[in-house]
Amino acid sequence: MNTLTHDTLLFNVHDLILLMAVGQYLLLAVLLQFTRRSADYSTYLLISILLVTAIQALDTLVTWSDPLRHLLLDWHPSLLFLGSFSYWLLGPLLYWYVASVLYRGFHFRPLDLLHLVPTLLVGILLIWNYYRLPTTEQINLMWDMSFMWSPLMSRLVSGWHISVIAYGCWCLVLLWRYHRELHQVYANVEQRERMWLVWIVAGFVLIAAWRLLVHVIGDALSAGISNAMGIVSNYIMFLFVNSLVFISIRYTHLFGGLNSLKGESDATAEFTPEQIQRVERLMQTERAYLEPDVTIESLAKRLSLPERTLSRILNQHFGKNFFEFINSYRVEDAKRLLTDPDYQTWTMLEVLAEAGFTSKSTFNAIFKKQVGQTPSQYRQNAMKNPTPADF
Question: Do 234 and 310 fall into the same domain?
Fold first, then answer.
């Protein structure tokens, strides 16, 4: 078997991009480990995702770089494919991470071990079809990449990428449900949205989808185009890890998570006319909606009601979720301020703050949805004054 000469080029520019991405994944993992103030599930899972992705990138580099692969085959061919498990772990880790960020009560259950079954099965397949073979046969299979073009490896490669895409879609469904649940619990949801999680999930899905596309149509393309498309995935990964650095600095410390509604189950969360009257009285006389950080938990405590009972009252009696219920009172208060001559000198920012809103965009959107006009249009039509230039 030929060996590498002293002037063999181990890394080209494209390989260096992949190596830089690996370095950034590892550096970000180290920074998270030593700079986060609390060690929780989310931190450890994100670190695991970064480490698994780094291993995956290294496995890709070693497998597809001829000089590196030949060097490893001359040294110890059984070291190939040791990073294969990383492809199958990425999907479950991504799902667990998203769930742990969105919900404070997240914890691992014995059934979660089922997510690791594909990793175990792939390990068994590789042991049977590669690792148990004599060293010379391993070298022959991988020197010209014939093993990578076998039906088994072709199916495994497709399965790797489909797994990440499937788990990514699952994560997006979880994020959609979380968005809906936010409106059942909070009146101000802007700071609790997790749009940066959508970008993280979409990034992994995009990379997996691109690689799956290259794998599926690669044989139908010329070698040059197929190789170029494969190299593009390295650059996508490099750009993606740079975005992760920004996200980890800018957003991950804002995590608070969402509790499930406390109290009786939905089946027993009945309510009475007296409880409805208490809710109305709290809104109309004590004007609890003016509290900027009012939540269903704080409101339920003031009413001495279980959270699920209060949620059922809002949804079934008033026909609104918590977000809509609180902000409907705020809109009515804003309408009063906008038409009162004593407040005509107030800016829109002052009006929305006085009415309990904390976001200009939310104020405009909710007001227009409920009234059919923007706040400025409403003031102008009601008072026949020019629209203020505050917005």
Answer: no
**SS3 assignment, position 186:** strand
What pTM was computed for the model?
A: 0.74
Length reported for the chain:
391
CB-based contact 68:62 (threshold 8 Å): yes
Residue of 19, 23, 42 lying closest to 253 (CA atoms): 42
Q: Is there a domain that residue 243 lies in? A: yes
List the alpha helices (DSSP H) in the chain: 13-35, 41-64, 66-75, 85-102, 117-126, 135-143, 151-185, 195-217, 223-250, 273-284, 296-303, 307-312, 322-339, 348-354, 360-371, 375-383
3-state secondary structure of 197: helix
- 36 vs 124, higher pLDDT: 124
Two structure tokens written together for 231? 């190299």
Q: Residue 212: what are its φ and ψ, rounded to 5°? A: -65, -40
Task: Yes or no: say if 178 and 194 are a contact pair by the CB < 8 Å rule.
Answer: yes
Mean residue pLDDT of the chain comes to 82
Rounded Cα–Cα distance for residues 25 and 151 (Å):
32
Query: What does the angle CA 6 – CA 11 – CA 17 come to, to the nearest 5 degrees?
Result: 165
Closest C-alpha to 263, from 310, 298, 314: 310
pLDDT digits (tens, 9 = 90+) for 89-124: 999 999 999 998 888 778 888 999 999 999 999 999
Q: In terms of Cα–Cα distance, which of 367, 195, 185 is closest to 293?
A: 185
Residues 366 and 10: their CA atoms lie apart, in Å, by 59
Q: Locate 49 and state its tokens.
A: 């995702």
Residue 6, pLDDT above cutoff 70: no
Residue 165, pLDDT above cutoff 50: yes
Q: Which string of b and e fits 335-360 if b means at least 16 CB within 10 Å?
A: bebbeeeeeeebebeebbbbbbbeee
Q: Are residues 88 and 211 in the same domain?
A: yes
Residues 206 and 277 in one domain: no
The parent domain of residue 377 ranges over 266-383
Task: Supply the CATH number for residue 146's domain.
Answer: 1.20.1070
Q: Give the other-Cβ count within 10 Å of 34's Cβ.
A: 7
User: Which two tokens mark 188?
Assistant: 């101000």
Domain boundary (224, 254, 284) is at: 254
